[in-house]
Each structure stands twice: as C-alpha cells, then as structure tokens.
C-alpha cells in the first residue's frame, strides 16, 4: 500500500491553476515556488483556467 502524506502544504500553480503539494526538493525554497512543473514554468502549458471558464476557444452554449 502506498504511503499517504495528508498534511503537506499546497499551493496553486501560477500558470495552470492546479493545486500542487510540497515536495522535498522544494524544501529550501518553498516560499518562492510558483509553478507545479517545468512545463508550466517555461510556458509550455496552455492556460487551463481560461479554457475551463469558457475562454475565446471552443464553442459553448449560445455560440452559434
């Protein structure tokens, strides 16, 4: 069975808006961590929050 760590601090990624938990490799610099991954830090992920909120992309209800 996997070991669960329920009491780790969490933040929200500045690029994609997803929550991410503390990792040991971020222990020294946790206050400055803003992104959940290198891809988000480098801007390779599209803005997930805008797509979920009905941004300019995609046809939603009433568009037609």
Molecular structure report:
- There is one protein chain.
- The protein is low in regular secondary structure.
- Helix content is 14%, strand content 9%.
- The protein has two helices and two strands; from the N terminus they run E-E-H-H.
- The protein has helices at residues 38-41, 48-52; strands spanning 10-12, 19-21.
- It has a two-stranded antiparallel ribbon with strand order 1-2.
- A hairpin with a 6-residue loop joins strand 1 (10-12) and strand 2.
- The model is unreliable at 51-55 (pLDDT under 50).
Structural classification: little secondary structure
Give the number of DSSP strands.
2
CA(first)-CA(last) distance: 50 Å
- Shape summary: extended
User: Which H/E pattern describes the elements?
Assistant: EEHH
The DSSP helix count reads 2
Give the strand order, joined by hyphens, for the main sheet: 1-2
Largest sheet: 2 strands, antiparallel
User: What is the average of the pLDDT values?
Assistant: 78
Strand share of the residues?
A: 5-15%
Radius of gyration: 16 Å
Outline the low-pLDDT stretches.
51-55
- Helix content bin: 10-25%
